[in-house]
Amino acid sequence: MRKILIVEDDKSIAKVLVAYLTAAGYAPTVIDDGLQALPTFRSLRPSLVLLDVVLPGKDGWTILREIRAESSCPVIMLTALNELDERLDGLNNGADDYIGKPFPGAEVVARVQAVLRRAPMITSDENVAHGSLVFDFRARQVRYGGQPVSLTPRDLSLLLFLAKHPNQTLTRETLIEKVWGVDYVGSDRAVDLSIKRIRQTLTSLEPPAEEAPQIVTMRGLGYRFDVNATP
Any idea what the CATH number is for the domain that residue 134 is in? Predict the structure, then answer.
């Protein structure tokens, strides 16, 4: 059962969300204090976060930035601030979706399901080290020197998916389906651009990562996360 963290101080809204998500087969946990959001996120390790903007103790934008500093866990913002600029701010700061209040509970469930379909299904609880890089599949992090490697949520999802399937040639179509989601309607060129950004990030690490795996282009086929050279 996938865990959903709800950060919402309106008890009536939280009650509706819990009822709908529970009926849909999820395991929701509610907190109503912004100061407890990050500690609860770290201990709960949810599959998705529903995050209000206006909260006591700490606002949702701050919490979103804190989550994004260490995880690409999907986050859907919930707020009565439904202006276009507010929605764009949320998406540009790493939110995966944005729902303006008031909203029907069924819509929230549908949005949750859609966002989770786009997120890679990585279930291993183990850390895997390739040279100086550590892939933490449960926390959805790639760490170098103990610190998270800075990647966009989508690029991080792609890198983790590749690392989950070492030494396998994966087609662009497979990567689009598993990382972007089956409802993605753009070009598979998005995979190439994401790979380019990941490579640039990994090659810019200081000091250079030792014995780092390579993302190899398999011409006419796709990509392979090559760890053959790594002990």
Answer: 1.10.10.10
